[in-house]
């Protein structure tokens, strides 16, 4: 499937902010005790998402085989993460990896200055 990278990809808003961590247990203890956070539906060895009172979410993630990147990873909600990744590259950014499963797909990218962000598609 060919994507027209000249057409902007609309966003539905910011889905969540995620920090990548090197030690999931340590990070969870810190954030849960700092902000009285309770894990939501998505809670695993490598990822936890906290539902916030305003309807947004905050997440912690640890890639099983890659070192963490120090960042606050904003996730923009989009209708097509793959098309978004292609557009990122057409505009001079970089697509790094795709993660997802049955409920979502995220294209991890950087802008031309190296700032990380995700294009998050809910299924």
What do you see in this structure?
The protein is of the alpha+beta class. The chain has one domain (13-122): Roll (2,3-Dihydroxybiphenyl 1,2-Dioxygenase, domain 1), CATH 3.10.180. The chain has two helices and eight strands, in the order E-H-E-E-E-E-H-E-E-E. An eight-stranded mixed β-sheet has the order 2-3-4-1-5-8-7-6. The longest helix has 12 residues, at 24-35. The radius of gyration is 15 Å and the shape is globular.
The SS-based structural class is alpha+beta
Give the helices and strands as they follow along the chain: EHEEEEHEEE
**Mind describing the biggest β-sheet?**
8 strands, mixed
Instruction: Determine the fraction of residues in helical runs and give it as a percent range.
Output: 10-25%
Oligomer: single chain
Total count of strands = 8
Q: So what's the CATH class? A: Alpha Beta
CATH topology descriptor: 2,3-Dihydroxybiphenyl 1,2-Dioxygenase, domain 1
Topology record:
Elements: E1 11-20, H1 24-35, E2 39-43, E3 47-51, E4 57-61, E5 73-78, H2 81-90, E6 94-100, E7 104-110, E8 116-122
Parallel strand pairs: 1-4, 5-8
Antiparallel strand pairs: 1-5, 2-3, 3-4, 6-7, 7-8
List keywords for this structure.
123 residues; globular; alpha+beta; 2 helices; 2,3-Dihydroxybiphenyl 1,2-Dioxygenase, domain 1
Summarize the structure in short:
By secondary structure, this protein is an alpha+beta fold. The chain has helices at 24-35, 81-90; strands at residues 11-20, 39-43, 47-51, 57-61, 73-78, 94-100, 104-110, 116-122. The protein has a single domain (13-122), classed as 2,3-Dihydroxybiphenyl 1,2-Dioxygenase, domain 1.
């Amino acid at each position: 499937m060919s994507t027209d990278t000249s057409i902007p990809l609309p966003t539905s808003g910011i889905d969540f902010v995620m920090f990548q961590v090197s030690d999931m247990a340590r990070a969870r203890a810190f954030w849960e005790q700092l902000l009285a956070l309770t894990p939501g539906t998505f809670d695993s060895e490598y990822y936890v998402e906290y539902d916030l009172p305003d309807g947004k979410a905050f997440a912690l993630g640890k890639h099983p085989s890659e070192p963490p990147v120090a960042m606050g990873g904003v996730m923009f909600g989009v209708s097509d993460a793959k098309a978004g990744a292609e557009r990122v590259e057409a505009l001079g950014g970089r697509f790094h990896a795709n993660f997802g499963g049955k409920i979502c797909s995220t294209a991890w990218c950087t802008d031309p200055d190296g700032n990380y962000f995700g294009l998050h598609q809910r299924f």
